[in-house]
Each structure stands twice: as structure tokens, then as C-alpha cells.
Amino acid sequence: MTHQLTPPVGKGDHIQGNPNAPVELVEYGDYQCPYCGAAYPIIKKLQAEFDDQLKFVFRNFPLSNAHEFAVIAAMAAETAAKQNGFWAMHDIIYENQSRLSRDVFFEFADEIGLDVEAFERDLHNPSLGKKIEADFENGVRSGVNGTPTFFINGTIYRGEYDYDSLYQAIAQHIK
Amino acid sequence: MMLEKGTKAPEFALYATPDQKVKLGDLKGKNVILAFYPADWSPVCSDQMSLYNEILHMFDQYNAILLGISVDSKWCHMAFAQERKFHFNLLSDFEPKGAVAKQYGVYNEEEGECERALFVIDKEGVIAWSYQSPMAINPGADGIIGALENLQQVSTSK
């Protein structure tokens, strides 16, 4: 079975890097998943290496029963997006993955320079939960079976996610 | 051979808890998803059952109930389900070992475990879809959802 990313990357997505890059890497991730934590610096390195040849997109796939703080972390990042802080929050969460707790996100919000009061207010917005659920359900339909799952130019990537494997998989799309 | 689409699903009654059995026939009127899997306690992040546990509400939308089945004992299942916070039944195909898996054609004699196989059974107890995944590969849930979607289309077009 080949799995295609459905829906394709669009307006509701968080996109990093050149929007017209020849390669689009989409991650379905869980902020508390240790494997996603391990993939985080690898993606940073790939982004540095491929620069404007690579566009990176993150979609939520929190396993709420397995990971106590996965959903609140996803909500924190989505909330930060309202203040243009999605990627800053995404990064600070992965960089501090071992110390996640219910309250730590306010500390993070402060550290990355968000208006913490507005952040706290927005965190209770019910539409956030819907966005995260929609990401999750679309992921399931696209063949995501765990985290992290990557799609390269719309097709699911079933290989290893060490640097060399991902490097090869991306490089073959660049002429 | 794995049972395929159009076959009547063989009846079974297996322990879901130490003192309670689930009987397939009692679930008539609901779609049933049978997820045979090799063993409890496989790694967390890629774990198939943990994924299904997160999408029970999606199954519910299609009037479908999920049952996990392996040859592990009911006590092992209970510990596994508690530790992983599962909200669905794990059935114990324990004695005679693998008897139900054998009926469905998804018992691996060499390993003494169930294959990683999925069945969607319709409201009348007929297999509507089946799929066997390579032992080490988590098949995800898109195939199940697709099969349930087809069932819904068939029943609304009637």
C-alpha cells in the first residue's frame, strides 16, 4: 500500500522554510514521544543542510493515553501560533522534553517572549482541540501508524529516520 | 488461509476479563473489528493497539466495536490494558491455544502466536474485509476505516 498525504499541505498548516522548495517534508509528531524527540535535532540538521531546498511541516499526532502531556503540548504550540510563536514553542518543547508538566508551558511562553496572559486565555479555546483532532484523524486516514511518521512530497516514508536515511530520501528529489 | 471477504465469521467466546467472556454472536447489529496481534507488551510509540486506543471514537462513528486478540492469558491482558490505559477489550485466545486464530486462518505455528491480521465483520456477522500485515509492520488504521466507510455506503444505498 502506498499512502498519500491527505489533505495535502495547505493554509492551515505550519510551514517552515521556503514555501516553493522542491522537497516538502511533513512530520506527524507527538511532543512527548521520545522518538520524535530524537528526530528533532536530525530535522534541524537536515534543514540547515538543504536550506531553501526543503520545506518542513509539522502536524499533530498526540497519543493521549500513552503520553500524559502530549495533547496539552500540542495545544500550547497551536496557541503560540496566534502570536506567531508556533515554531518557537515547538522547539522549546522538544528541547525540554524531559521536563514536561501541566504548567511548564507558561514558563515556555514567557521564555519565548509571548504575552503570557493572552496565551493562557487562548489555551482554553475549544477550536484548538478540534484542529488537533483533525490533524490526528487525517493522519490516521493517510496511513500514520505511530510517531514520528514522515511524508516526503506527499508520499509516506517508511524508512529509518536517522540523518543518513532521511538525507538520502530527500536528496533524491533534488535535481 | 486467512478467511476472506464474504465468509461468515466463525463464532467464538473468549475471555475479555478474568471472569467475563465476549461472544461474537452477542455483537450482532454492530460492526466488529478483530485485531489479531502477536503479543502484549510490544514497543510503545509504534504500538498498533495504542493507536487504535486513540481512535475508538472514529470506530464508534461507524457503529464499530474493536476487539484485540492474542494468545496471551487474561491476566497478562489485564496488566497490559491497565498499563497502557486501553479502553477496549483484549481477548485471550489461550486455551486451546490459538483456536480462534486457527479458525480465522491467522495462526503462526512456528512462533506460536497470532499473525498481525485485521478483520472487519458487518452487522450480520459476515467478513467484509480482511488484511494480514507482515509480522513486524504496524498496519495502522486506514484500511479499517476504509472498510467501515464502504460498509456505511452500502447500507445507505440500500
The name of the CATH topology of the largest domain in chain A is Glutaredoxin
Q: Residue-averaged pLDDT of chain A, rounded?
A: 96
Q: Quick one: how many beta strands of chain B?
A: 9
Largest sheet of chain B at a glance?
A: 5 strands, mixed
Distinct helical segment count of chain A:
7
General description of the model:
The complex is a heterodimer of chains A (175) and B (158). Chain A is 45% helix and 14% strand. By secondary structure, chain A is α+β, with helices and mostly antiparallel strands. Chain A has 2 domains: 22-61 and 147-175, Glutaredoxin; 66-133. In chain A, strand 4 (149-152) and strand 5 form a beta hairpin. In chain A, helix 2 (70-81) runs antiparallel to helix 3. Chain A is globular, with a radius of gyration of 16 Å. Chain B has one domain (13-157): Glutaredoxin (3-Layer(aba) Sandwich). Chain B is built from 5 helices and 9 strands. Chain B is α/β, with parallel strands linked by helices. Chain B: Residues 3-153 form the Thioredoxin domain. Chain B: This is Peroxiredoxin.
Which properties best describe this structure?
heterodimer; A: 175 residues; alpha+beta; Glutaredoxin; five-stranded mixed β-sheet; 7 helices; 14% strand; globular; B: 158 residues; alpha/beta; two-stranded antiparallel sheet; 5 helices; 27% strand
Short characterization:
Chain A has 175 residues and is an alpha+beta fold. In chain A, 45% of the residues lie in helices and 14% in strands.
How are the elements arranged and paired?
The complex is a heterodimer of chains A (175) and B (158).
Chain A: E1 14-17, E2 23-29, H1 34-50, E3 54-60, H2 70-81, H3 86-95, H4 104-111, H5 116-122, H6 126-141, E4 149-152, E5 155-157, H7 163-171
Parallel strand pairs in A: 2-3
Antiparallel strand pairs in A: 1-3, 2-4, 4-5
Chain B: E1 13-17, E2 20-23, E3 31-36, H1 48-54, H2 56-61, E4 64-70, H3 74-84, E5 89-92, H4 99-103, E6 107-108, E7 113-114, E8 116-121, E9 127-133, H5 142-157
Parallel strand pairs in B: 3-4, 4-5
Antiparallel strand pairs in B: 1-2, 3-8, 6-7, 8-9
